[in-house]
Amino acid sequence: MDSTLLTWITFIPLIGTAVIMCLPQRALGAVKVVSLVATFIPLVLATVAYVGFDKTTEQMQLVANVPWISGLGVNYHVGVDGLSLPLVWLTTLLLFIGVPASFGIEKAGRAYYALLLLLEVGIVGVFVSLDYFLFYVYWEIMLLPMYFLIGIWGGPRREYAAIKFFLYTLAGSVLMLVALVALRLSSGTFSILEMVDMAQAGALTGANLPFGGVLLGMKFTTWVFWFLFVAFAIKVPVFPFHTWLPDAHVQAPTPISVILAGILLKLGGYGMLRACFPIVPDAFRTFAYALGVLGVISIIYGAFVALGQTDFKRMVAYSSVSHMGYVLLGFAALTEWGMSGAALQMFNHGTSSAALFLVVGVIYDRAHHRDLNGFGGLSQPMPVYWGLTTVAFFAALGLPGMAGFVSEALTLVGAYDSADPRFRILVLLSVIGIVITAGFLLWAMQRVFLGSLNEKYKDLPDINLREILCQAPLLFLCVALGIFPHFLLDWMEPSVRHLVGLLGGAG
Amino acid sequence: MANAYLNGLAAIAPELVLTGFALAALVFDLATKGRDSRRVGYLTLVGLALTSLLLVAQWGEPSRTVLGMVTVDQFGNFFKLFTCASLAVVVVFVLNDRRERRHGIGEYYFLLLGAAVGVFFMVSTNNLLLLMLGLELLSLASYSLAGFHKGERKSAEAAMKYVVFGGLSAGIMLYGISLLYGLTGTIDLAVMATGGTGGVPAGLVGQVSENPIPVAVAVVLILAGFAYKVSLVPFHFWTPDVYEGAPTPVTTFLAVGSKAAGFGALLRFVGVLFVHEDVQEAVRAYGERVGLLIALLAAVTMTVGNLSALRQKSLKRMLAYSSIAHAGYVMIGVAAMTAGGFEAAMYYLAAYYFMNLGAFGFLLYFEGVTGSDAIESLEGLGWRAPVVSIAMVVFLVSLTGLPPTVGFYGKYLLFQEGIAADLIWLVVIAGLNSVISLFYYFRVVRALFLSKPAEREAAQQPAFVGLLAALGVATVFFALFTAPLVDWARRSMDLLSAASG
Question: What ipTM was reported for this prediction?
Fold first, then answer.
């Protein structure tokens, strides 16, 4: 396949941004059409890439590598493997859904869609970068559109939420930048793949740096590991770095919450797999159990806090903390099953949490509040909506037959199999999280849809066609991947096996 | 002999032309009785363009010392071109300053060009006396410029503070120079550093072992003089008040042109004395300790600058504190005491040129619209003047050090050279400082875009808006294509190689 394919996927939205900026302010219809086109083409191209992907190899595919900043040895080096391609596809899908989901936004529409498309450039860029400098540039490019999208079009406390999101992420990225400079000086390259090779050969120890590989009594690799881990953990977010998330999610407009939960959180997990663990595998192995513990704390803590929420959106936001905990647990277990489960969980959370936020958006657009206790009996005026919500809820709580079940089960089985027997305790503990998750979702279902009808809402219009069309692909994936998970697992398998090998885990 | 003299004059042709235009500006203004100050501005632009052409013609010539004390090299060339380029923008600012029409401003241009002549000499000499003269010429012109709005209290106060602080630190610096002269028997940096030549007994090399404390005192006193010029903590107290009180175009010149000149002279002082490849080993080792002191200054400067900026309500004062913080970042490259570090510092200055000229230009534009420099008064103006405001977002992103902007790339280079020079603690402090700086820089963004659209209409100044947009584009462009600026900085490192001196 053509090696420029990934570049097109990345930059077509940028062309869309440029076109939108040239359109007059009043031509909102044209802006919407351009946005649809500029997100649809990448989706098609990503699908082409997905279909044409060679599932037998862990090698990078669709690679393009040309010098960019030659003085510093920075290359425009992009490519995908089984870990990144599904996420690239998910990104293009959610952005495409994000456009019609935004049709209700009236205020300064031109700027909104221009920023939305710019956001896609940054996200896809991170997933396809194989050069650490490039990776960092995309990582940061994403922040600015997100800041504006939350800050201009968000809820009442949008300014606070936007700057909090920005500051947290930037604090993480500064750590990443310092680690990146140190890695560059130690390895002499920006290529992530070369760094991984050097780490395998035991050559990436920082011994050639002025401080000789040990700083304040801690090994260079340990420093790099924690700097990078915190940078990515903020994005995931892992407890205790999660406090920006409820604010950002709740204040962001619905389509932005969808993208935030659906993709941005995955950047953290993906970053760990691509640009943290395999570069410092020894340090990762040393602290794997600690990461597992953090994962379980996130699972249980997120679930309990979600249980205590009365704001529908806040509940969904905390459920993300809980669900992303499985991802960390699966990584830390260092088994092939655990890793596959975690990678699958990232994708499945992308669809199920996006669906949940759309669900919240529908009711908020109609009732203009999100208080779980303020509804009741909505299954009568809105039966179709109720049905779709049920599917989304069951997907999120991991009902067998749904996608979330496969990934969570794989993760837990993989973690149970870990060479480190202490992981069995973690698995047992995380079952609490599953129970609580089922609890808060079903309780929310009961409060909103069942019981006696709240008279105020007896004339609420049911979910409309546009909203159904936005939901449909996500719910379809939640169900389909529960029955045919191999449509993802087969793609991921060689890369996962290779990664587990790199990290020195059991097969 | 006469031939050597003529060659020397040819080598300082840019300085001569600049002086000629400075005088011409003054005479023209007198002849027209101050009625035609716009034309004086155009005349100034022509002079700057001509000088730049002469400087570009000197491109690639080997470094040489003429007339016994002026060193013509690529390093000096970098800062001279930098000065011309920043002055040209400042002149455009003056021409577009809506508040400036009240004042007879012919002398303004004379003083600006005079300051430039001072800069030219201070960045191109190893002779400490000439350096001092150039620095004083720059300072004198700056004092008058800062107090240019004679009738305004703030402006007068600014000039007064500036004079008092400037006089004090010039005295301190001169004292340091005299100590150094007494110790080494020369006022030429290159001779001091390499020692022994031209009948000079020992230069610095004997003194660093025999009289380490007097040498330390001398070096610290001279550094204090530079620290004042580039506003490093604790010599920064004048900065916010002077920046606030001075007319905004003058502030721009102080923050960009004058500060870069200070760095030019500082880099030459430190470079020729301690880092040059001919420097004796004992002196170099001594220099590494000086580097540690500079690193400390850098850390304190960026932290104090950023923390003070957090509380500012006036955009002008905020930018003043931010310029202090940025001086701290540049000092990372100086503290590295390596050619790479110097290159990074110079790239950062070039980056600083785009983003800070842009930010001050934005300030000037909105002072013209709102008549105020309070951040609050910007509320919602982003929707009214989108081009200027989007450009401002680019400048602020660059000042914060986020990609894809020159500010990010400059910061990256500084971080890299800092870690390579074993200053990882300083790099971590600088990193945390960028997080702090995000908070206050984005208060401006928040005011511009996160509020309801303002009622007020934007100003129609197409040329000015075009200039700001161009600076914004350059801020991104030179980050995607870094080669021109990086090569330029690298070429200027003849300061440290054998050919110079």
Answer: 0.91
